[in-house]
Design a protein that fits this description.
By secondary structure, this protein is mainly alpha-helical. Helix content is about 90%, strand content about 0%. The protein is built from 2 helices and no strands. Helix 1 packs antiparallel against helix 2.
Length: about 150
């Protein structure tokens, strides 16, 4: 009896490796995105601290015009940094989403190959069953022929 061999096994093996690599790539991209978001959180906390310092100085009445300019400059720089950081976050999200879509496609391809493998396996099982039945039929026919020949002699 011949052994079952999936005709697209090589392609499936390649897809499995690609899937594994894509999962690793996605994990790295997720970490990068989390790092970029942490930087944004830090910038927002710094802006909030600047505002609290400005409010405290305003309430105490101890703010000079130079202090106001300093706060304004710091907040302006912080806003610019936040805008740049937002661009980095959006880029990281695009890269992650692209990787996720590619991983999803690889998983779909693997599912399709697994379905094809199952279909080929079922076809192979049917062929093997028919082959075994033919062998049994030939054996039975041979025995009957031998028994008739023995009866004749």
């Amino acid at each position: 009896m011949k052994k079952f061999i999936f005709t697209l096994a090589g392609l499936r093996s390649i897809k499995v490796k690609q899937e594994s690599q894509k999962k690793q790539e996605l994990a790295v991209l997720e970490q990068n995105l989390a790092a970029e978001q942490a930087i944004m959180d830090d910038l927002q906390q710094k802006a909030a601290a600047l505002r609290r310092g400005w409010q405290a100085g305003w309430q105490n009445g101890g703010l000079q015009q130079t202090d106001l300019r300093q706060f304004d400059l710091c907040l302006s720089q912080n806003r610019q940094e936040q805008q740049k950081q937002l661009g980095r976050i959006r880029q990281a999200e695009r890269e992650r989403n692209l990787c996720r879509d590619q991983l999803w496609q690889l998983m779909q391809d693997l599912k399709m190959l697994d379905n094809l493998r199952e279909q080929q396996y079922e076809t192979w099982k049917k062929e093997m069953t028919l082959e075994e039945e033919k062998i049994v039929d030939d054996l039975v026919s041979f025995r009957q022929a031998v028994n008739k020949h023995v009866e004749v002699v």
